Structure formats: structure tokens, C-alpha cells
Batch of 2 targets.
Target 1
Amino acid sequence: MARDKLITVRIEGEKRDAFNQLAKSQNTDTASLLYDFINQCLAGTIDIGIVTGKKQGIDSIDTDRIDKLETTTQRLDERLGIITKRLNDWIEAVDDRLSDCDQGLSEKIFSLDHRLKALSMQLDSQQIDSIDSIDTTSQQIDSIDSIDTTSQQIDTPKTQKAIAERLGLKSPTTLNRWIKSGIPEPYQSRIQIVDRGGKKKIEWIS
């Protein structure tokens, strides 16, 4: 094995002291730091061209790597452009779909509102017709009462058949049912239930 050789380097005193401090800050000494530097330069882990100043700035970067980086960047830009276009198309399609849905919903709401108004008018009309019908029925009853009162003044019916005919009933048997269930309200002012010798019957109110 070849014997180690000594390398002597002449350097300004201030720089020597500063380099010694640098070595100490890295927990080593001057000789060991120089030894490691030489080994890394020989191993290629340190670009000696940068240290000697022969490669500076952009010149120290591999041209092939720059070309590859530019190509990769261009591909990324193209891919990003495609993705951006697809995203914009998708957003535009969704916006159009939302606009169509909003228009369709507005039309349905308008149609429903129109139908509700028509239904409300129909219900109001039916209520008016119902009120008119009730008034007509009331007038008819009042008219019947008036006629019956006039007839009563002329001739008060005595038999069940005559009472039924005067009330406009089809059969006297209806009076028998009223004896058990009670006289309906519209007729209570004209007829009454009385007990004759333990037998109930309907008589005209005189």
C-alpha cells in the first residue's frame, strides 16, 4: 500500500482561521474536512466546476435536462388546457341544465297557481249556490207554513191520513215512525204527539 502523501496549501491567515472555525462548526477539523472534500470531488458527488468557477449560473445545468423539463412542462400545459376546457364545458352544461329546470319549475308553479285560483273561484261559486239554495228552501218552508196556517184557519185535519196529506207525506205510516223517533224540526210547529187513553198519536196543533 502506498504511503499517504502530504499536501501543503498556502492561504491567507484570516482565511485559514475562518476555515478552521467552519470545520469546528461541523464537528470536525481542518484536515478531515479537506480530506472529505477531496474524496467527494474524486467520487463526482461534488461538481468541481462550480468550485473552480468554470461553470456558473445556467451553464452549470445539463442542457438535456433543460430540454426534458421544457417538454414535460409543455405536456403539462397541454393537459391542463384540456382539463380546463372539459371543466368549463361541464360547468356550462350544468348551468344550462339548471336554467332549464328553473324555467320548467316556474312554469309548473304558474300553472299550479292558475289552477288554485280557478278552484277557489269554483268553490266560492258553489258556496254562493249553496247559500242561494238554502235561502230558497227557507222561503219554500216559509211559504208552506204560510199556506198551512191559512189552511189550518179554514180546516184543521183530524185523522192521521188527513194530517199526512196536509203535511205532504206519501203515507200516514210516516207519522207512526215520528211517534217513536220524534217529530222533525220543520214540522214541530204544526203537529204534536199526544197521549189519548194510553195510546200516542199525532194531532194538528190548533
Target 2
Amino acid sequence: MFWVQGYKLGDAHDLLLNKRPCFPKIDAIKSATADILTGHRKKLVTLTWKDDNCSTVEVSGLDIGWGQRIPLKLDEEHGLWTLKRELLEGCYEYKYIVDGEWTCNEHELMTSPNKDGHVNNYVQAVSEDVDIINSAVRSRLTGDNPVITKDEQLKIRRFLETYPDLE
């Protein structure tokens, strides 16, 4: 509805929720829109957990979803668990799992409580490759009330037509 029919994203979201219970990921839709229109640029991000008294540290969320986990590697000399990961530009929420316990790192950016009261860490993956036009488009499309132009709708439609399995 947002990409092809020209609905405002918030209106499309509300209409969809009135038709059926579901959980569309608004930030993922915004980021995917920006990726299609500006290209898929990646940024290397580093997550760290400082604790040499635990036996495992994993992370969930990010670009893998909440049902998957990625182990961090321990630098025994420094007592620092680290994950380096390339992410497409965007904002990613995640949580650490330390010895099986889900927790946030208070030394990293944290979200406000969501509607279920959960707080997560988050990271902004932003490329240093400064292209003023694409940066402005990406900023507009990932902001609070993204609107796509008719030309952008056409570009997205052409992009979607390259995937015949979507029909």
C-alpha cells in the first residue's frame, strides 16, 4: 500500500491492523524503501560486552531477528566479548544474552520502553560514504512520516517487477 498505492506509511499500517492482527516492522519497511531507492550500503558495527566472569555472550535482534542468536568472541586478555558485523544502513535493535539471561548493555544506546515494556539496545548503521542527495533521501524515508514521490513509486514498482516470485 505504501510502495505501490501511495498510502502514507502510518495510514497503511493502521488500515492493515484494522483488517488483521499482525506485526509489520515499520522501521524495516522504511529502511527497505531507502535501500531500494538509494542502494544497499553497509557499515561495519562493533558490539561489546565487558565481563570475564561469564561463559557465553550472544546477541539477538539486529538483522537476524529475535529467534536467532549470534555468539560474541571473547578476548581473554581484556575480558571483552566482541561481535563485528556488517549491517545495511538503518537502525537495529538488539539484546545481549549473557549465560542465558537476556539483558541490555547500559553503556550502549538504549530504546525507550516499547508497548510491551521491553527496553533494547540499538545501533545506527550509517555509511561514511557521503552522497548528499542519497543521504537526504534516506533521511526523509527513515524519518517519522515518510512519503514517497510518484517517481519513487515507479522506481520501486520496477524494482519489484524484477522479482517474478512476488506476484
